[in-house]
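Class, discuss our next protein.
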Amino acid sequence: MYLPNYKDGSIVNLMSSILQAQGGKSEYDSLPSLNPNELSKSQNIVLMIIDGLGYEYLAKYGKDTIFTKYLKDKITSVFLPTTAVAITTFLTGVAPAQHGITGWFVYLKELGLVSTILFFNPRCGGLNFGKINVKPEMIFNEKTIFEKINRKSYHITKKQYVNSDYTTAFCKGAKRLSYKNLSGFFRKVKKALKSKDKKYICAYWSKFDYLCHKYGTKSKEVAAHFEELNVRLTAFLKSIENTDTTIIITADHGLIDSDRTKTIELKRHPKLMETLALPLSGDPRVAYCYVRPSRTKQFENYIKQNFENICYLYKSEDLIKKNFFGLYEPNPKLFDRVGDYTLIMKENYIIKDFILGEEEKFLIGHHGGISKDEMFVPLIVVKTEH
């Protein structure tokens, strides 16, 4: 079991270094391997997030690449190590305990439903919350990192995400730029660097994660894309020499491969299903369970008798007290968004339920669990000359 090191070795501490380097404040300590005072001397600070590029993947497949040439540290993600949770940490500078986003699927008490939070719509799909006059600030109440610093800011993401409700909410204070492909990704970073102001640029690339989900981390498709990233990044770094820029490259999480033999389908466990008041939320590797009060003993007994080798069972409130989600005072909404119990899957097991209208789709690559492959991410730091 590998847990986030919120004290001095997680992406939260990385963001504390970035905040402090640009005039912001953080309750969390800075990362020892990224001194805010040194970082503040750079004209430009660029954070590149390569979705899914875990530390363990680099250790296995990244030798003699630009990534390992400038590899500085091994740090942890957050809990859950999954995109919705970790990206919100990158965009706010705080841990999940404070920002209150807890998984791919999040139960919103305010609306009485399970949401797909990044899409800002119900899990079942359909109507965007904005269409019923539910504004993002009604759901999200943490300021963005761009609002907390005193530098000109840019956020660079894929074209289909740039004007989404989530991006609009969590990129306040930044100029948003979009791209269609990898060439466009690096081109937009270079465009932002041309400004003469001291600036902070946050750039997000998602295709590596997509390929790992679809084909698995050991696939030729992922290997080919990783090599393409290596070539393009090498050329990009050469092209921005003498710009007085510090480029920080990391990831939101790594991934682990699974298969149908390690998939627990809830529909095959009707006695367990009848104990639940809501569909599962969270992720397939860590699931939040909202349990009917009259069925708590049945729920606990079923898990202990049938899933002993498959998952750990926790009361969700205990995980908050044990600082799984972060240190310090938690967001009041956090307690509503983690259910009564949490199932943390062992080995490479996943758990899936499907609601009406939802496609029964099974992926190879997964994240959100607490294996080293999922939890550890690299810290890569490149400093160009003035």
Observations:
- The two ends are 43 Å apart (CA to CA).
